[in-house]
Structures are given as C-alpha cells and as structure tokens.
Amino acid sequence: MSKDTLEKFSQEKCLKLFYEMLRIRRFEEKSAELYSAGKIRGFLHLYNGEEAIAVGVMEMLRDEDSFIGTYREHGHALARGVSMKSIMAEMYGKVEGCSRGRGGSMHLYDKEKKFYGGNAIVGGHLPLAVGLGLADKMQNRDVVTACFFGDGAVAEGEFHESLNLAALWKLPVLFVCENNFYAMGTQISREESQVDLCAKASSYNVKSVAVDGMDILSVMEETQKAIDYITKNESPYFLEFQTYRFRAHSMFDAELYRDKKEVEEWKKKGPIVRFKKLLEEQKWLDEAKIKEMEKKIATEIQASIEFAENGHWEPISHLTKDVYCEEM
Amino acid sequence: MCAKKMTYRDALKEAISEAMRNDSRVFLMGEDVARYGGTYAVTKGLAKEFGEDRIRDTPLSESAFTGAGIGAALGGMRPIVEIMTVNFSLLALDQIINNAATIRHMSGGQFRIPLVIRMATGSGKQLAAQHSHSLEVMYAHVPGLKVICPATVEDARGMLQAALDDPNPVIMFEHVSLYNMSDEIEDNTKVDLKSAKIRRSGEDITLITFGGSLHKTLQAAEELAAQNIDCEVLDLRSLRPLDHDAILASIRKTHRAVVIEEGWRSFGVAAEIMALVMEKAFYELDAPIARACGVEVPIPYAKHLEDASVPQVPDIVAKVQEVLNSDV
C-alpha cells in the first residue's frame, strides 16, 4: 500500500472505500451484539478483518456482473448495495428480509443485485459459478461471475472439478479465494500438502495471482487486471487474497486453535487501520471526518435494527410456498 | 395425427432434439454424450446437428457438471444434464439436494431452476453393485425436486417434453431394460408430471408400480388373468409428486393391493404407498397390502443372483395370490 498507488484514485473514491469497510465492520460488531441478545440466531460468521476484499472486488465489478459467496457474506452483500435493512431483517428471520427469513445470516440472496447467495456447503457453490459463467458465455453476455470462497474450499473436490471445467470451457469466472489461513479451526498447513494455492489453480491452467488481501488498493488493482484478463482471453482467473479473520469462526468458537498473539499481530495489519493511516498521511482523512462517518453508519445500523424489529413473521400458512415454482 | 414406431431411446432423442430446435436455451451435457454418442446411445448423432457447444462432453466430474447445470439454469439456460447411471449421481448428490432442491425456497422464491437431470437406473444387465441399483426413492424423498420414471415409449418422449417445459429441477429415471423397447406412438404425447396412469383396468386387486417393473407387472397380470384374477395395474410415472388420488381411487375400487419396485424394501416407495393407504383408506382394505421389492443386498453380478435380487414375474404372481388368500 503506497502513496503512489493512492494517487491513482481520487480522495472521494478513497473515502468511499474507507467508509464501506468501516460500515461493514460496524455492522458485524452490531450483529455480534444482537446475537448475544438473542435477536439473531442460527450460525453467525463475521467478516471482521477481511473487509478490503469484498469492498475492493465489488468496487471493480460492474452492475451486470454476477457474484456468489459463502456463509460469511454480509460484507459482500453490503458492499454490493444490498440494503442493510433487508440483511438485518433476514437475520431477524423476518419476511422483509432479503430471503424472506428462509435463509438467515448464511443465505442472503438478491436477484436484482445479481447475488446468487450465501452458500453454506463449503465448495458447493463453485460449480454454480461455473454454470453461471457457462450461461453467460452461451448467451454471449460480456460479463463476469465472481465466486468468493475460503481456503477451506480448496480441499473440496468441487474446487478442483470447477477450476478444471472453467479453464477447459474458457468461462468468464473470477475465482476469489479469501485465504484467512484457517478452515474453521484447522490451520492451512494442517490440511493442505501444498499451501501455495496459486500452484493448485495454475495446474488447471488458470491464471493465478496471490495478493495482500489486507490492502484494499492492491485488491482493486489486481481485481481490475483479472476482469480485463477474463474479458480479453475468455478464460477464468484465480485471485488468492491473503487475509485474516479477527473474530472467531462463528459465535460458537472458543478459538482454542490459535494464539491470541497471532490475532493481535494480524490486527495491526488490518485493512481499516492501514488504509486509515495512509489516508491520514495524505491529509485526506481526519478525526472529524471519521466521526462523521461513524455517526452516519450508526444511524443506518439503527434504522436497520428498527426495520427488522418492526418486520413481520411470514405466516406459517406460507411455509411451503416456493418449494416449487408454479408457473413458467 | 399419425402413429410411428420407435424405441424408448429414440423417443428420448426426439424430445431432446425437438426442444433444442425450438429453444436456443436448451442444451445437454454429460459424460460421453457428444463424440461417443451417449453410453446408452440416446444422444447419438445430436452433436452433428446441434454442435458440441450444445451437446457438450464433460470431464468425469459429476458434481461440477451437475452443479454447472444448476448454475446455468440460474443464469437463464434450460440445461439437460445426463448422468451415466444413478450410482454415479451420488457424486452429485450435494449439488442436487443442497443446491437444486433448496435455492428457490431458501432465497424466498427469487430464483427458478429449470433443469432436467436424466439418468439410467435399475438392474438386468449384469453390471453388479455399482451400476444396477434403483435409488429413485432417495431423490423422491426431497422436497424441491420432481422425480419421474417413464416406463413406456410414449412417456419417454411425453414426460421428457413436459420436464423440459417445467420451471423446476426434474430428475428423470430411465430403466436400462427399456432403451431397446419399441412401440407405436402418436405425434402428440405431451403429458403432465403428476398423474399416475392405469395401464390395465381390473376389479380384484391393484398392482402399483413404476419404471422397469411395469412390464413385469403387466406380464404377471396376464398370467393371473388366466387364473381368473382380474388385476388393475397402476403406473405411478411420477414419484414426486405422487398421485395420491389415483392410488386411493384404485384402492377404493379393488380393496387390495401389491406394490412392486426394484428398490430395496426398507423405507422404499412401497413403504410410502402402504403408509398413505393406511392413513387415507385403511377401512377400504380387504387385506393387508403386500410389497414385492428388491432384496436387501448389493446387487450381484451372476445372472441368477441378480435376477433373484429384484422382483420377477413369479414373485409378483405369488404376492398377489398371497394377498387374495389372506382376505379378512
């Protein structure tokens, strides 16, 4: 992360990126509180520490591009512009939620935003991304499907089958690996004989690049290169963003598998603190501006909570609605 | 309207090519479907007419190409996925059950998945325990899927046409003993995907079956007719949805029933039908319902053992006699 790179972007753009990361961070913190208060139930996986990836990639995707993600997807949904109210309502289980309360935290969807879901079978959505890319290619649509997944998914057969298929068929799929070095509680070196994930992707003839995922400017630059490459070469692309999850895997995780010191070290390299420092050095950001942002974010979060609180429970008579599609 | 003679295999091929001619969104993919012509030769010659983009050979990656079918359906295509045999479909079970069957409901009805997955099923070819089973019931268990088992040449074409018109994931089972069967069929054979059909009308007892067992059951009914036992034969055609009305109507007429299927006896289709009759028409019964099912064994290779593993004509005849002799 350097001033040189920074100068490629405007102050306005950079403040917007900073704001989006902060917005996700505060949303996740509030979600944890609401979980403890019993308002949100089920599993809750927070994105703290990884914000630069969702914000950076979404910044580069075009409206017509699709994306699909994992169960740690609040940040992606927010960065894409899925309304915070509908996300909060979803986590409350209300019918006003973006999946009518049927999905919860792990299964946010928004067709209008071309968001094909939070998916909770690790690796299970990679074939869907391949299919979305295939549909785009067969219908001559000049778009990209971004598929987010973690390092854990790399151990699943679907990762290998999907990269092979996407490369073999030359599909416009951007594989975005958010490598936070832990598959739940299993450190990558304890589950992968080859920890160089780009080596795996490259072996399928997929162009692969490893990137510092804590540096939003690098995330954006490399994502743009990837999109250009996909468009020009009609081929998939693999981005490994190295990052770290600051919080536990889920709300049930006692974090026995990692050292607190390790977490603290990574926090120093966090995407928000680093970008903040750079913007402050550039004199683009100061405490007053941050305060203003915090206030705006707090207001939006509060409004989303009120929206969720005032939302409605879907009538039980609708329970089996939409198991099937009734009309063509 | 003119009738023409064709095989079950050709009837499937006709439905596929007709759909592909009428709708550019329809395409077919699977292992060895293009250059090889399909394991059971259903797609032989189609790649020549439609090109290898639309008749698409896949790697041996059942999970990825089935998932790609789901993704392509989400992306606006109308894919047909061919899986070589039901045993191989287990490699794609995650995609079918966790994705195809759930996404519509879990997203609050935002998405539709117009996908047809065809696969061979059943015994009779001495293919042993990894190519011969009848696992239809595993899919029929799952809400969100439709499960059809055409048993006649007419239904092979008509039900596949209907499946291709349906906005839901439809799993179609083609019993391996049926591909070479030929019959004269009319031009217009389109049917719905929910109605069972009486294949032989009778007064004394209802024989309920589907798929490959239909023809053995009809033969048993002929033999029983010679003994003055008048069997009604009900072909279920669809397992999900299951035509409750047709089953119950026939029970109310004959007051006795035997259910015949190749699948294993425990927790099977027969068990479901017996439970249904218990719940809805118990007092209509003149005798307990019997079932002729697969023996609980991995189907072996040797012909005499394979034959003994699934209900044959004499087993069906014996079951009918048993029921008629047990009248209360």
UniProtKB/TrEMBL annotation, chain A:
Matching InterPro entries: DH_E1, PDH_E1_Alpha_Subunit, Pyrv_DH_E1_asu_subgrp-y, THDP-binding
The organism's place on the tree of life at top rank: Bacteria
SUPFAM superfamilies, alphabetized: Thiamin diphosphate-binding fold (THDP-binding)
Residue ranges annotated for the Dehydrogenase E1 component domain, each copy included: 20-311
Keyword check for Nucleotide-binding: no
Biological process annotations from GO: pyruvate decarboxylation to acetyl-CoA
Pfam families from the UniProt entry: E1_dh (PF00676)
Reactions this protein catalyses: N(6)-[(R)-lipoyl]-L-lysyl-[protein] + pyruvate + H(+) = N(6)-[(R)-S(8)-acetyldihydrolipoyl]-L-lysyl-[protein] + CO2
One GO MF term attached to the UniProt entry: pyruvate dehydrogenase (acetyl-transferring) activity
Cofactor(s) listed in the protein's UniProt record: thiamine diphosphate
Keywords: Oxidoreductase, Pyruvate, Thiamine pyrophosphate
Record-listed E.C. numbers: 1.2.4.1
Key word Oxidoreductase present: yes
Quaternary context: Heterodimer of an alpha and a beta chain.
Record's function text: The pyruvate dehydrogenase complex catalyzes the overall conversion of pyruvate to acetyl-CoA and CO(2).
Protein name from the UniProt record: Pyruvate dehydrogenase E1 component subunit alpha
TrEMBL record, chain B:
Keyword vocabulary terms for this entry: Oxidoreductase, Pyruvate, Thiamine pyrophosphate
Domain called Transketolase-like pyrimidine-binding: residue spans: 6-181
Superkingdom, taxonomy of origin: Bacteria
SUPFAM superfamilies named among the record's database cross-references: Thiamin diphosphate-binding fold (THDP-binding) (SSF52518), TK C-terminal domain-like (SSF52922)
Pfam families: Transket_pyr, Transketolase_C
Classification via InterPro entries: THDP-binding, Transketo_C/PFOR_II, Transketolase-like_Pyr-bd, Transketolase_C
Classification via Gene3D superfamilies: 3.40.50.920, 3.40.50.970
Name of the protein described by the UniProt record: Pyruvate dehydrogenase E1 component subunit beta
Organism: Uabimicrobium amorphum
